[in-house]
Amino acid sequence: MVNRVDAQKEPERLSGKDIRKYIERAYQMLIKKDKYLLEVDANERSITHRLAIYLELEFPEYNVDCEYNRNGIDPKRLIGFKEQIDSDDENGTTVYPDIIIHHRGKKCNFIVIEVKKISNRDDSDKKKLEIYKNKLFYEHAYFVRFLVGEDFKNNRCSSFEKYIEEIR
User: Fold this and answer.
1) Which contacts (CB < 8 Å, 24+ apart) does range 80-85 have?
2) Is 140 domain-assigned?
3) How far apart are CA 23 and CA 33, in angstroms?
4) Residue 52 belongs to domain spanning
5) Residue 161, Cα to own-chain centre: how many angstroms?
6) Are 140 and 110 in contact (CB under 8 A)?
7) 44-58 helix and 16-33 helix, angle to the nearest 10 degrees
8) CATH number of the domain that residue 43 is part of
9) pLDDT digits (tens, 9 = 90+) for 34-79
C-alpha cells in the first residue's frame, strides 16, 4: 500500500529521464500483472486504471487520478473540445485526461497522460495533450499506447519504448 501521509509535501524535482523511467516501469508492471486485459482487448478505461495504480507506486509523493475533472478547485475546461460528456461513452472521448499526476486541490499540474490501444487510430489525444500543456500548464505530457488482442499475443518484441511518447 502506498503511504499517503506525505502525499501533499513538496516533492523533489524529477528529471525528464527519471519521469520516463518511472512511466516505463509502470507500463512493464501492467504488462506483467495485467496482461489478460491486453490479451482480451479490454476497455481502454480498464487498462488506464491499472496503469494509474502502478504509476501511484512510482510517484508516491503525488496523487494519481484517472479522468480527473478539476483544475485546483475549478472545473477543468478546454476551449475547442467536446463540452457535452457522455458517462456511457465506450470510446472515452471526454476532455478529461486519462491520468494525471498532481496534488489535489492545488494548481500543481505535473504530468498528464493519455492512453490509447494501438487498435484505436485516433491521434486527437496528442493535440489534446499539447493544449493541456499550453493552457493548463502541465509540466510533462505523455501519449501511451498498448498493443491489444492478437497484436499483443503475437508480439515477440520486448521493446515497448516506442509506445511511450513524450509530447513537447
Assistant:
1) 80/131, 81/128, 81/131
2) yes
3) 15
4) 16-167
5) 15
6) yes
7) 130
8) 3.90.1570
9) 999 999 999 999 999 999 999 999 999 999 999 887 666 666 656 5
